[in-house]
């Protein structure tokens, strides 16, 4: 029924307003958006990008567990009991053998009169990395401030829950103490309300910064305009991987949707209807900007869902990532839905590198050094065994010769 009525309207509309055909097309496609389904398809290369980070993320969880303990030390048996929560696939003893150099083991008492047990504490090598991490954060402080400002500038009323920001600090590369060490240094930009950790703490943007009020999409259009001398309209890069096919009606809907004017995520959209095509365009722009601000150009969907109120996301916001599968990819790797920005990756390699990725690189280097140390130790042990076997063989040969001489 809807299809016949819109076709009839189209004929009338063509006579009365030929210039308005695009608008009608958009209205038609928007009316049936809920019926347009895009089948999720696996992208092995983008899934592999997540898999490649699995090892160091596992190690980082264990490191954080130890660092969060009083005195940054923990009894080995206590850590072993947390294996399931840490999602460790092996015992803590096997983990420590695989990744030497992260911790030092020493004997201490849990209570004054108890027996001595094994404790773990950060190794000198890990402490050097932590100092390097601190210096990288300090070197990129202006970048961190700009990210915080942008997160607040996109939010309703320019306010975001401080507790939520703490939960996503690793996604955007913020240091652990950013609410104290960074926010407090820039009172002209931020105001913290309440005490973090109590669920009623908020970070407010004090002053608007026009320098930060341009999205990645807008900056790219400006750069292309400057380079070519032709005004380039801000637009999303839309490209599906090879072998991915959309149904005809979805291709038409996407084509018309892409013709809608780009709406900056920093614009005030309080006047827009939540179900309007313009609001969909704005939501995609916000997700694009959020993923662009993240260190790895990907964020778990449940984490994005925490900000529905601040960024005016609908309850069904996650469908955006499959509906606009030429812009995003939603990975299901590891049983967690993760929204990824397609344009930031070349296959499984991240090409749009955030300066704060240097921290990850340093940590991976630390792990590689430990594993090289383990490999060298195993090689030395094998060499010692081989030498012992050769020595035993020579002794046996000598004894056999002596026995032969005695018989003669």
UniProtKB/TrEMBL annotation:
Domain PORR: from-to ranges: 42-371
Gene Ontology molecular function: RNA binding
InterPro entries registered for this protein in UniProt: PORR_domain, PORR_fam
A Pfam family: PORR
Matching PANTHER family: PROTEIN WHAT'S THIS FACTOR 1 HOMOLOG, CHLOROPLASTIC, UBIQUITIN CARBOXYL-TERMINAL HYDROLASE FAMILY PROTEIN
Protein name in the entry: Protein ROOT PRIMORDIUM DEFECTIVE 1
Source species: Dorcoceras hygrometricum
Taxonomy of the source species: Eukaryota, Viridiplantae, Streptophyta, Embryophyta, Tracheophyta
């Amino acid at each position: 029924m809807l299809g016949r009525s819109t076709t009839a309207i189209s004929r009338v509309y063509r006579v009365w307003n030929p210039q308005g055909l695009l608008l009608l097309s958009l209205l038609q496609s928007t009316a049936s958006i809920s019926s347009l389904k895009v089948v999720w398809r696996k992208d092995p290369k983008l899934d592999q990008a997540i898999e490649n980070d699995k090892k160091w993320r596992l190690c980082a969880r264990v490191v954080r567990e130890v660092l969060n303990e009083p005195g940054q030390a923990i009894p080995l048996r206590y850590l072993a009991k947390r294996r399931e929560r840490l999602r460790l696939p092996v015992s803590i003893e096997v983990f420590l053998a695989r990744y030497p150099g992260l911790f030092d083991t020493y004997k201490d008492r849990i209570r004054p009169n108890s027996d001595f047990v094994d404790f773990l504490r950060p190794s000198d090598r890990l402490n050097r990395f932590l100092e390097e991490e601190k210096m990288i954060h300090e070197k990129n402080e202006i970048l961190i401030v700009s990210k915080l400002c942008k997160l607040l500038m996109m939010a309703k009323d320019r306010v975001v829950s401080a507790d939520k920001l703490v939960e996503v600090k690793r996604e955007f590369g913020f240091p652990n103490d950013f609410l104290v060490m960074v926010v407090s240094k820039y009172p002209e930009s931020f105001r913290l309300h309440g005490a973090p950790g109590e669920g009623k703490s908020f970070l407010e943007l004090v002053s608007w910064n026009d320098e930060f009020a341009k999205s990645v999409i807008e900056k790219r259009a400006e750069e292309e305009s400057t380079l070519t001398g032709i005004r380039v309209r801000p637009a999303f890069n839309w490209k599906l991987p090879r072998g991915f096919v959309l149904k005809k009606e979805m291709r038409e809907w996407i084509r018309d949707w892409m013709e809608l004017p780009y709406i900056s995520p920093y614009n005030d959209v309080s006047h827009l209807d939540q179900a309007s095509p313009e609001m969909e365009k704005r939501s995609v722009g916000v997700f694009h900007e959020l993923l662009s601000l993240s260190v790895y150009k990907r964020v778990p969907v449940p984490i994005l869902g925490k900000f529905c109120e601040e960024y005016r996301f609908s309850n069904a916001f996650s469908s955006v990532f499959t509906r606009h599968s030429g812009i995003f990819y939603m990975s299901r790797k590891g049983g967690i839905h993760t929204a990824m920005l397609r344009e930031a990756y070349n296959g499984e390699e991240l090409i749009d590198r955030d300066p704060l990725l240097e921290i990850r690189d340093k940590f991976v280097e630390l792990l590689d050094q430990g594993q090289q140390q383990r490999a060298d130790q195993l090689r030395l042990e094998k060499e010692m065994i081989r030498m012992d076997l050769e020595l035993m063989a020579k002794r046996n040969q000598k004894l056999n010769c002596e026995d032969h001489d005695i018989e003669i």
